[in-house]
Write a structure and sequence with these properties.
Elements (H helix, E strand, L loop, with lengths): L3 E2 L6 E12 L2 E12 L3 E5 L6 H7 L10 E9 L2 E2 L7 H7 E4 L10 H11 L6 H11 L3 H4 L12 H14 L4 E5 L7 H14 L4 E5 L3 H7 L2 E9 L5 E10 H6 L4 H7 L5
Parallel strand pairs: 1-11, 3-11, 4-9, 4-10, 7-8, 8-9
Antiparallel strand pairs: 2-3, 2-5, 5-6, 10-11
């Protein structure tokens, strides 16, 4: 089973080499090689249990929070090994932000949802301006500008998710990771999130995990297709099958597994 990908011709923000992830003694994901270009949207697709979210969480060391998890290989962020001993994982997560599957606003005002993270990260500028700019970039300012003192939890699901995107933006990251950010949302909210992502890539690199192949084809510049193979012990090991321009993955994939998945033969 080959592990093919097209190296980007542009600057690389994140690079994974020989990435393997274990939970305890069990190998969960193997042999991932990826170059994530700056200012592009990269989609991770594949069936459940193939390691998409596990790989995503490697890029900001969220897997460090799982005691049984062990990461091997190398991941570099603008050329620096993010698993090196001197790297501060908290600072890394400021530069590589994350938006989760379910909207998770803080139980604070809309304003404080944005200001809080910026404040603890030492922001000393005009907070009102930062809050407005972040909410505008997340395409939610016009909907919340007259109720900034209200709880973020009072918003609709789609608005809450865009608030979480604004919260990630406020700490001035380089990369935004999104783990199925639309799976809990209605179609109209999903479209708004997708439009927001397309605007955000002018300033940020975005990696999105999605089960929605139509979404991947609509929003991403490149797509990584993962699959899983059974192990002797009854588990599964995820692996990267193919990584290329999105139009290539969906229209002219090299690998039969990719062709079968995007055509709906399995998944």
């Amino acid at each position: 089973m080959s592990n093919t990908y097209a190296p980007p011709s542009t600057d690389v923000a994140l690079k994974a080499q020989d990435l393997q992830v274990y939970y305890g003694s069990s190998l969960a994901v193997r042999d991932v090689h990826l170059d994530i270009p700056r200012n592009e949207i990269v989609a991770f697709i594949g069936p459940s249990g193939c390691g998409k979210s596990t790989v995503l969480r490697c890029f900001n060391r969220m897997n460090d929070l799982i005691t049984s998890c062990r990461v091997e290989g190398k991941i570099t962020f603008h050329g620096e090994d993010i698993y090196a001993d001197h790297i501060d994982a908290v600072e890394l997560r400021r530069k590589v932000g994350m938006v989760f599957q379910k909207p998770n606003p803080f139980p604070k005002s809309i304003y404080e949802n944005i200001a809080w993270g910026a404040r603890i990260n030492g922001f000393r500028g005009d907070m009102d301006e930062l809050v407005e700019t972040s909410l505008r970039k997340a395409a939610v300012w016009d909907e919340v500008k007259d109720k900034l003192k209200q709880s973020g939890l009072s918003l609709s699901g789609g608005q809450q998710q865009r608030l979480c995107i604004a919260r990630a933006i406020a700490v001035q990251p380089d990369v935004i990771l999104m783990d199925e950010p639309c799976s809990a949302l209605d179609p109209i909210s999903t479209i708004k999130i997708e439009e927001t992502m397309k605007q955000l890539k002018e300033d940020y690199t975005i990696i999105i995990v999605t089960h929605n192949m139509q979404q991947a084809s609509r929003v991403s510049d490149r797509t990584a297709f993962y699959n899983a193979e059974p192990t002797d012990k009854g588990g599964k090991v995820g692996y990267l099958v193919e990584f290329d321009r999105t139009e290539t993955i969906f229209n002219h994939p090299r690998e039969q597994f990719t062709r079968d998945y995007v055509s709906g033969r399995f998944g």
